[in-house]
Amino acid sequence: MISRRSCHFEALLVLAVLAASPALAQSDHEHMHHHHAGADAMPAAVETPAELPPLKILMPENGAIVGTQMAIVIQTPADLSKMTMSAPVIGTHLHIEARDVSMMPSREQLVRLGADRYVFLFDVPAKPGENTLRVYWADSQHRTVAESVQQVTVTVARDASQ
Question: Considering the entire predicted model, what is its pTM?
Fold first, then answer.
């Protein structure tokens, strides 16, 4: 059974995706960096530097079954023009992670949905199976701010009919 709230969020997501598609195609991808987990690519977690804005994953929900074209809706009151890779000076910034890939989106890659809500579309289809999505703040050395980590686990369906 799908709740009205879930349908509302899904409708907003679809509208945001449709409205943002041309903007995403023109976005500056040089600010999107991929780090593969494993050896030395994933920096160690650090203490919270001062007071950081909260982060929250609104969609997908933990345990959701999603398609291979994934998106994530986050909520934060942060000034993302200063806290993403497109900031004039890179300090504490947003990381979004799926499976073994960590991305540092530019402000232009985050579509504003209003009320401090943003959607990020993953540019590579997800592989079927279990995926853990994480959002967190990292310091200027790309070290994870442990207290900021938010995550959900989703299952990517093998095809659209599942």
Answer: 0.71
Give the residue extent of every domain in the chain: 4-156
Please list the alpha-helical segments (H only) found in the chain: 4-26
Q: What is the side-by-side strand order in the sheet with 129-138? A: 34-36, 101-103, 93-98, 129-138, 150-156, 65-66
Enumerate residues 6+ apart whose C-beta is below 8 A from 115.
75
Residue 149 has pLDDT above 70, yes or no: yes
Helix and strand tally (H, E) in the chain?
1, 10
CATH number for the segment(s) 4-156: 2.60.40.10
